[in-house]
Amino acid sequence: MNAMQISSQRATPVSVAVSPLALRLANAAAGLGVALFVLTMAVAALGAAPGATVWNRAGGVLAGSLICLAMIKKAQAGSRGAYTRVRWITAVAGAAMMVTAVIAGSFPLWFRAEQAVHALVIGALACALNAPALAGARSGRSR
């Protein structure tokens, strides 16, 4: 097979329904990720050492939030793979953030509070992406 035959056999983009609410929630999650990292830098600048665990977690939250936003935008453009990945990522990330918020002593109170808020936003995004109204869009059928 040559390159022309392979490219003609690729699936055409499908219509994936991403609600405006999901896009707003993804933007809010990305904003919270940036805010957490800036807050961590501010705490460090004020002389309180946040610790390696807090820095690593804040960096991971920032990266994950921006990746989630990028995947939402790809899903909006018709990528079914990005849509499936972002549905899984939001479900797992929301649960992981809530666990972080509950663990007492491992993280400072300000960090756990931010994680709780972020978990609620990511959880709402997961619900918006997995809403029954979108079931037809996920399966390729209309209801």
Helices and strands in order:
Elements: H1 3-9, H2 20-45, H3 52-76, H4 80-102, H5 109-129, H6 135-139
Helix pairs in contact: 2-3, 2-5, 3-4, 4-5
Feature tags:
75% helix; mainly alpha; 143 residues
* Cα-to-Cα separation, first versus last residue: 38 Å
**Total helical elements:** 6
pLDDT < 50 stretches? none
Strand count, sense and barrel status of the largest sheet are:
none
Provide a descriptive summary of the structure in words.
It is a single chain. Helices cover 75% and strands 0% of the residues. The chain is mainly alpha-helical and 143 residues long. It starts with a helix and ends with a helix.
State the gist of this model.
The protein is built from 6 helices and no strands.
